[in-house]
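[step 3/7] inverse_fold.run input=structure_tokens len=245
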């Protein structure tokens, strides 16, 4: 007989799920104990195992393992981040939020969120420590995701009308317009991201200035080598440069 595709245990009558319920989409089989594991993580998947591939099942089980120490799943973690940002109300796209564990990296943290429309689709705009992402999960057309890495965004603006506003995200040569955003949120979101961008740029500046100082030190050393600067003069200039670091 065959072996369990997950744990390699030899499959016998006693440890093989009945009526073919342990079969995956490629007809490979999982043993009863692996079947129970899958069922613990997601009973719906276990019930329709033949619709899933080995890869799907491995991902499902890995996700379970990566649940954090409080026993929360990544989705719970994400919902918590959003609850904090929205003062406890998840009024925002539930369908989109459910997609976030797939879209976000494990270490990505949501720091702002807005609801609006983009290219005529209703969805959510989120800001994370890496990027802005617009997510639109349509019932008919499926999932649309557009992301704007922070280092590609040149500026962000908002505009407001009577009730609703919009957020414009400028990237090199492109403007993405998120419309129908609640007025106060359009403003706070855009200002938040703008602050973040300017902080990032300042951090960047410091990094850029370092090699310049190193360049200057090298030049100073050459001047001393060529006896244009005395040892004392060199040391004095060197001290000044190093203070700038
Ligand atoms: Zn097994």
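[step 3/7] decode complete -> sequence:
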């Amino acid at each position: 007989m065959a072996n369990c595709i997950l744990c390699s245990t030899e499959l016998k009558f006693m440890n093989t799920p009945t009526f073919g319920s342990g079969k995956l989409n490629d007809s490979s089989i999982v043993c009863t104990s692996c079947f129970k594991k899958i069922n613990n993580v997601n009973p719906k998947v276990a019930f329709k195992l033949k619709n899933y591939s080995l890869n799907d099942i491995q991902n499902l089980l890995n996700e379970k393992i990566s649940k954090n120490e409080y026993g929360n799943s990544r989705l719970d973690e994400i919902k918590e981040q959003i609850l904090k940002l929205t003062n406890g109300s998840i009024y925002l796209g539930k369908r989109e939020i459910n997609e976030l564990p797939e879209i976000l990296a494990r270490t990505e943290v949501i720091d702002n969120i807005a609801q609006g429309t983009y290219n005529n689709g209703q969805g959510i705009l989120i800001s994370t420590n890496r990027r802005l992402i617009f997510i639109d999960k349509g019932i008919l057309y499926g999932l649309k995701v557009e992301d704007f890495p922070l280092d590609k965004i040149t500026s962000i603006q908002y505009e407001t009308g009577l009730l609703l506003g919009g957020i414009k995200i400028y990237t090199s040569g492109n403007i993405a317009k998120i419309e129908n955003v609640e007025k106060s949120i359009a403003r706070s979101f855009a200002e938040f991201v703008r602050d973040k961008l300017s902080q990032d740029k300042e951090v960047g500046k410091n990094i850029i200035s370092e090699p310049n100082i190193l360049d200057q030190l090298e030049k100073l050393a050459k001047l001393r080598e060529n006896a244009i600067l005395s040892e004392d003069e060199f040391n004095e200039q060197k001290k000044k440069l190093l203070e700038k670091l």
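[step 4/7] annotate
DSSP finds seven helices and seven strands in the chain.
The first strand starts at residue 110 and ends at 118.
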